[in-house]
Amino acid sequence: MTVKTKFGELQGVSENGCTVYKGIPYAKPPVGELRWKAPQELDSRQGVQNADKFPNRCVQGIAKPEEFYGKEFYSKPAFVPPMSEDCLYLNIWTPENPGNEKLPVAFWIHGGAFLHGFGSELEFDGAEYCKRGVILVTINYRVNAFGFLAHRWLADENGLSGNYGILDQIAALKWVRENITAFGGDADNITVFGQSAGAMSVQTLCSSELTKGMISAAIFQSAGGYDSPLNKDCSLAEALETGERFVEITGAKSAEALRAMSAEEIFAAVGKFLAESPMLPFRPIVDGLLMKQGYTETVDKNLHHDIPYMLGLTMDDIGSSEGTAGTDNPLYKACVGWSLKNESLGRALSYVYYFKHRPLGDDAGAFHSCELWYMFGTLDRSWRPKDAADYALSEKMLGYWTNFMKTHNPNGSGLPDWQPCKEENRFIMELS
After folding, report:
1. For 56-83, how does the pLDDT look when each residue is reduced to its tens digit (9 = 90+)?
2. For domain 2-308, which architecture applies?
3. What pTM was estimated for this model as a whole?
């Protein structure tokens, strides 16, 4: 099927009951003089582009197949695309026969500690969303130093330093709002969702004036919430200090020298830098433009987007350890706290989940990211043994997620009732 966008025509491919449009550019390649600058709008082009190949991922490291997450998500080379700074692309899955009604849109932001990840990973797919009448969009954005380097040289150029990766996400969201009608989507019903650093990204977008009116609903998975242990504020001063050390490692003496370095040289410096850095050295920055205050202060001042939210975590998620497991996990408290805070502010009530199912195959438990196989309906791609309970849980989660995307309420389709979490009834949907 061919669709006409603002920037030219695209030819998709038919897969598993969907039409998939792969590798759609949403901004100019951030290379050369555009390295460490805000994403630039595309130029229109003539002719039809074949959107039949998943795009480059940003230059990054990746877990090896023998490592835990390598075995889990990166063990199949066919699902690992080439690396390049030319990485600002998105993918769209639409039902092959969408009908005349505009469909809700799910806009997925991948995780990866802001260091790695891409929108066509093994565990991501839109076929099950299309079956349920939802269009799925996944995106690539700049990560590690390519997406989040702050430095005084860069700030001196145009007042912008860092947060390029989040600005990429906003550019992709704008592209979707401007063009998704051509794919059968409803530009006024876009749910932005993500996991881990992706959830941190979603909360960042929902904390920024730059995205006001662009997001209809949001889902935070395994990050985010109120006073979240993962969403720690990064001041511009802190980011500039980090950037100074990174540039020192590169040996560059000017912004021009930095941009003259190859992507491979920059990434080699990333590796050396990470060896001496704390967790999440590259992350969103409270810069006065994208974010004017920190995450908790934004909520306390009632400045975050007033939209429906769904959020939760896995039982053995980040922060779970002896003494802090279950409801004592700070991330669990952040999810409940988000819902109660929104209630106190007179906002839309939030839905909170707790994924307790422990996948088969090893003793990793309900580990960070394990729910992805279930809520994308891609269990058959996983190496792990499965039984009827796994598939039943996946069906339930697909129902809840897509119902929320359609109506901003997870209930319906004959599923067990999921009540919002509020002070008088702190209901948590246990997924097990």
Report:
1. 999 999 888 889 999 999 999 999 999 9
2. 3-Layer(aba) Sandwich (3.40)
3. 0.97
